[in-house]
Design goal:
The structure is a single chain. By secondary structure, this protein is an alpha/beta fold. The chain contains 7 helices and 7 strands; from the N terminus they run ββαααββααβαββα. The longest helix is centred in the last third of the chain and has 26 residues. It is globular and about 60 Å long. The N terminus and C terminus are likely disordered.
Length: 271
Amino acid sequence: MSEPLARSAAPGPESVEYRESGEAATVPAPQAGSVGPDAVASAASDPTPTAAATTPIDTPTPDESPAPPVSERDRRFMALAQAAAEEARAAGEVPVGAVLVRGDEVIATGFNHPIGAHDPSAHAEMIALRATAQAVENYRLPGCELYVTLEPCLMCAGAIMHARIARVVFGARDPKTGACGSVVDAFANPQLNHHTTVTGGVLETECGAALKSFFAERRRASREARAAARGEPHAVAGGEAHADSHVETRSEADTDAHTAARSEPGSAEPL
């Protein structure tokens, strides 16, 4: 039986709206004065509210069940992905790292380096997928799991599905390009012939803090460089007090901010 989802703030006497199977329908509401004269007289003599008047309308409540606890296994592999992300930071790239595992075996790691590689597809997930495919000599990777410190984008989501990855575990959410629910949910499409399980928010605070600190340092260096070019003193430290609260993502990296030389990152090596 369908239940009322919502009632308008000022419902008219004509109808109450119900929703069933995604379609709105209206049913007649009880008309005022439809009770008999005896009932009207009884109601006038008895000021006590009737049960119908005092019974609250049941409204659906959102599911407030707590998120499942993070397993030690997921924490351990995400920590390895964080270590890979630090390799990207050391190379002057946005710190995103990935680890691809099968069972308890780490097959390959990868870190984000599209700037150094002159490759727009050189995201951490793509590097780990390529290294794993080479290691096992198969472009299909069934039964494997991918751990990555930042929510995959659409490009990486497509590659993950083509590789038949069984499960994706990510850390920080990407509010600008995330394809696991933040912007789009590529893995929830029932028309796809492969369905990857997704677990998000593992070590989310730590993964997000690494990204925030990278961009805070990049903004500071950029301000100092501009001040030096204008011949101004080092009076820019206070400007960091209102750093952006959201997680900036690898898509925001630009070469202007990387004024210092950086080592050319190498490809991920199978472990």
